[in-house]
Amino acid sequence: MARAPRKPRDEEIVPDGFRVARNLGEGRHAILEVFPGLDRLSTAERLVPDPAARAKLFDETSIHIVEQDLWMYVSPFELPKVVRREWRPIVSPEADCIVVGANHLRESPLLTLYMDIYHELCHLLQHHDGADLWPPGVSYVKRWTEVEAYRFVVREARVIGVSNQFLREYLRVEWISEEEHRELLAELKVPSE
Questions:
Q1: Does position 115 have pLDDT exceeding 50, yes or no?
Q2: 99: helix, coil or strand?
Q3: 96: Cβ contacts below 8 Å, ≥ 6 apart
Q4: Quick one: how many helices (H) and strands (E) in the chain?
Q5: Which of 89, 118, 165, 182 is the most buried (most CB within 10 A)?
Q6: 55 is in which domain, residue-wise?
Q7: Upper half-sphere CA count for residue 146 (Cβ side, 13 Å)
Q8: Is there a domain that residue 83 lies in?
Q9: What value, to the nearest 5°, has the Cα angle with vertex 110 and ends 105 and 114?
Q10: Is residue 193 part of a domain?
Q11: Is the dihedral of CA 17, 34, 67, 70 positive or negative?
Q12: How many angstroms separate the CA atoms of 39 and 43, rounded?
């Protein structure tokens, strides 16, 4: 009798063609060097439907790998007015750049990296449209930019069959409270249990 194929765990689910160069050194790299083929995924087409605008986004965006213990963030063009004291962002006034922690790139599940990179690409597009990604005095879960970026990646995760359980954990970020986590889940229509 043939054995039924093993169902993949959520963290193993990613779109065909999603790849990560996990062993690149610290410093700046073209986004497609770090995430080869990212621009050819259907997710990229849904994010930026216009082929010329999509090509421009991926041609002009770099990844800056750092040895700091962090996830990903869009490098501001100038230091935001309000930053947490422990956060020393890399400022990139000359070009679009996404900063990625080396350990995150090397060790995180592919699904987390897939969702994170598209979340940050959403922020780059918002920034291009003039959005303030770090508005002073606005809770993280109340920032329209965060909600919109999370909404995009949650919708994309649902397209590939990611469970609510994984989404709940993905949305549990260390800088928000349990109450804010529940608020974010409700806003994104991810069941809390």
A1: yes
A2: strand
A3: 57, 60, 61, 62, 74, 75, 124, 127
A4: 8, 4
A5: 118
A6: 16-78+88-187
A7: 19
A8: no
A9: 85
A10: no
A11: negative
A12: 8
Q: What is the pLDDT of residues 81-114, one digit of tens each?
A: 555 555 566 666 577 889 999 999 999 999 999 9
In a domain, 178, yes or no: yes
Q: Is 150 exposed, middle or buried (0-12, 13-18, 19+ CB in 10 A)?
A: buried
Residue 166 falls within a domain, yes or no?
A: yes
Number of domains in the chain: 1
Full DSSP string of 128-142: HTT--SS-TT--GGG
Tokens encoding 7: 């169902």
Residues 145-175 pLDDT 10s: 999 999 999 999 999 999 999 999 999 888 7
- β 27-30/61-66 pair status: antiparallel
Cα separation, 28 vs 99, in Å, equals: 9
Angle between helices 51-60 and 110-128 (to 10 degrees): 110
Q: Which residues pair with 134 in a beta bridge?
A: none
* Secondary structure of residue 175 in the 3-state scheme: coil
Amino acid at 153: V
**154 burial class (0-12, 13-18, 19+ CB within 10 angstroms)?**
buried
